[in-house]
Amino acid sequence: MKVGFDTLGKYDIGFPLPRAASKIFTLCSAFLAKEDTLAVSARTVYTEDVRALYEQSGAALDLKASGESQRVLSSEEVKALDKQSVVLIKKIHRTMLYEFAETPAEASKWGFDIKQTGKRSGTILIPDGRAAIVKVLAQYATAERARPAAERFKAPVLADVDKVVTGLQNNLGARQTGKSQRTTGTQQTLDTAAKLLDLLQAAAVQIVVKRFNGKVTPELGQWGYEVSARQPSAKKTVKKTPVA
Length: 244
Fold this sequence. Notes:
about 240 residues, mainly alpha, 3 strands, about 5% strand, rod-shaped
């Protein structure tokens, strides 16, 4: 992105796009490094505001990184727990089919739905999808916990069901928290970068006007600014009409 001042000069000064946060932070770092070599009185009026915002950006970046790390870790754990939940629900479903072949409606006490109409009426349905599976596993665990230990189904072990249900609930919550942190951190980073870009553009104008008599010069590169030679505009050629 180029800013149009010193329109008659030989050089253009370019800036990162507003959403290019990493490039803006890189420019900010170079800008501050140069300003710190100068006497306080020689620095721009924007320098300390740039410094303060740049220091704030670290917290936003940390929040974004932390959220992403938590989201990825929880996602991996959820994938593993999903596989375990499918294995468990299949085992429990087989138990229901065996135990309640003649009285399928009894399976509803352990959370299973029963097909009510059609040719397969009375069939004990196996849940499909994470939410449905977790719901049935949770109900199964509740029902089993309410029964005397000697009367509980031998497989799967109640503790295994509890572990998967609790693990999925906790990790899904952690993953959502991680996503929220990442989103918040990303937005804060973009907001900070946009404010920094405005300050860095204003500082560039002051440097050009006060140090270089209003002329854009390659010396601005010392502050991290991108300076490029301006391309000469093509001259229009006038076609002469031959005189008869």
